[in-house]
Predict the structure.
Amino acid sequence: MEPTLFSKIIDREILADIVYEDDEVLAFNDIDPKAPTHILIIPKKPIATLNDIEEGDLALIGRLQYTAAKLAKELGFAEEGYRVVMNCNEAGGQSVYHIHMHLLGGRRMQWPPG
Ligand code: AMP
């Protein structure tokens, strides 16, 4: 897999506004926010799309969701509510082929999404 933009952010070749990091996960503010809080939560392991997740990755995927909830609590909008989104492939709106969870909070979300 070619290094993606997000691999370069993990390796600090490209700077991002990092809000959380542990051994397996990195979270940073989206450069083009769609809500007052818009954080991207990514695994350090490069996995191109949701279709490429393997059984051995299940704990890692759970960690992404756990991190989203932890950040929402820390940022104060967990009780009010928030949205997490993972886009898959072109029709799903994916533009960076390193899986990522969007954490959107701080405003009322619409349904259905566009
Ligand atoms: P997706 O369209 O689901 O693949 O999401 C990719 C996200 O990456 C978009 O919301 C972009 O705004 C965001 N993005 C692109 N480049 C950067 C960057 N250098 N730093 C932070 N976020 C970025």
Observations:
- The helical segments are 5-10, 58-75, 89-92.
- The pocket of adenosine monophosphate is lined by residues 5, 14, 16, 28, 30-32, 40, 87, 93-96 (CB under 6 Å).
